[in-house]
Amino acid sequence: MLEDKLLVWKFKRGSKEALCHIYEKYRDDLLRIAAGLLNETSAAEDIVHDVFVVFVRSAKQFQLTGSLRGYLAKCVVNRARNVNLSRQRRKTVSMDNAEPIALNSERPDQWIICSEEFTRLSNSMAVLPYEQREAVILHIQGGMKFREIAKLQGVSDKTAQSRFRYGFTKLRSILNSEVTK
Amino acid sequence: MRPADMTRQFIKNASIKSNPEVNEAVLKELLNELDQSKSMPCAAREPNIWRTIMRSPITKIATAAVILVSVVAGIYFLGVPTESVAWADVVRPIMTARTVVFNVEGENVPTTKVMNMGTQRFRGEVLSSDGKTVQVIVIADYDTSRMLQLIPSTKTAVFIDMKDIPEEPENVLEELRNMVTEIQNDPDISVESLGEKDIDGRMAQGFRATGPDGEWTIWADLQTALPIRMEQKWRQMEFVCTDFQFDIELEESLFSMEIPEGYSEVPSGELPIESSTEKDLVETLRIWAEVILDSVFPRDFSGQIYLDDCKKNRKKFAKLTQEQGVELGMKMGPGFVFVQLLKAENDWQYVGKNVKIGDSESPVCWYRPEDSETYRVIYGDLSVKDVSEENLPK
Lengths: 181, 394
Fold this sequence. Notes:
The complex is a heterodimer of chains A (181) and B (394). Helix content of chain A is 73%, strand content 2%. With 181 residues, chain A is mainly alpha-helical. In chain A, helix 2 crosses helix 4 (68-90) and helix 3 (41-57) packs across helix 4. The termini of chain A are far apart. Chain B is an alpha+beta fold and 394 residues long. Chain B has nine helices and 18 strands. In chain B, the strands form two sheets. In chain B, strands 2, 3, 4, 5, 6, 7, 8, 9, 10, 11, 12, 13 and 14 form a 13-stranded mixed sheet that branches. In chain B, strands 15-16-17-18 form a four-stranded antiparallel sheet, with no helix packed on it. The chains are: A mainly alpha (181), B alpha+beta (394). Chains A and B meet through helix 1, helix 2, helix 3, helix 4 and strand 1 of A and helix 1, strand 1, helix 2 and strand 8 of B.
């Protein structure tokens, strides 16, 4: 935590080393969260790219009041939610019905390279309601507490826990059925 | 069924890799951005929107509210609440076209219900962390620059003369609507749009603007164009304003500068708002570490943590008289104000967590005074030294 505070402090004063350190430290975690939430690598890449760009542009105003990891993760979550809402409005591919092919498609400039396990997990996650998927990913992969997730989702702690529990149980069931097939 | 811990492990282990070439390309772009941002003054990037926002009375109201709350945070020290007072049912609205009510909360700001009648009358109710009880009430009269602070638990009242309150706001509702309309319609305003979002059941349009002293995110109701949520990072403060109500009825008595029946007045002095100094900050740190905590500096420098620390250690103050409490509280406030009024370029940094008082080697905090090339570093023994940038603690 203190290391992050100093990193941010140096970054705000224009330190390239600090920016490199922050980028290396959190890049893959953020990509994983974004890819898990959106089940589509290109959109996830765009989001993480944008989060870092905005972070750099707002360097002078940025004030770290919590954890840097939590802050960046929240930025990713908010943008992923906007992408989700935008897709729903356009009535194209709903996030809750997203096709798994997006994760498997390969582009020459592809940033995210998914492991077989991640692809399988994401495809299973794709059937969960978005709020449940968000709770599961943020709690297990993002290491967030339910209180933080509740605040992020604008719901009570209990609701956040319920969303996690329902999502996790469903996910277990899906993964289990895959094993027994 | 697959055991829960195995599923958890599976989720944790499901990994991705990132393409090294793309990693490098993105990093290069970010470093370029950093170079550009160094040469670009913050205010120049969004001149129109920033001017618009800073012109807004609601900005000034929120600013004044935060400053007043910080003053209250200092004075709260004298509270020593032994019992809670429930959220009083004092609000009996009367019709007026000049009222704005909203809630302020944040990591550096105790949760506070803010009420404004016209542009000259302010009432803030600092709530407990569960939001159920009012810990401190502050009523300000901008006409006379006087502030009345009430502590329900001890039935004490303190009058404070305010100096240099930020410019007084006018026509809140009208200006606020103008601001949002301008943001939405002016093609010359290059503000970042955050899209639409459901906020408490209302569809809202979000905008984010940045300025020299911070970043503002505003969510406005799509139908009425009225703000319903503002997220603000202003100087050292980060807070959120929610539950806006405009033109609602508020009782005149809520803004009364008379001491309520049953309350007793305790003496006070002037509490300078704009003239707080580094010396005040040192004194605030000393009292916090020596008197409130056990010879250790707080985990962070914020109003909310201060209130929490006071609450946890209330037994330590049991022997203080009310007058002694007031005196200590009045010494605490200016230090908070000093930090809150630092600008981004002052480069404030607090690193005092776990530092013990008397430790001359460990820094507690630092900042760079305006037009200074060196930093002022306050150490654990409360000494203050001028330190060049390259010699700052790593």
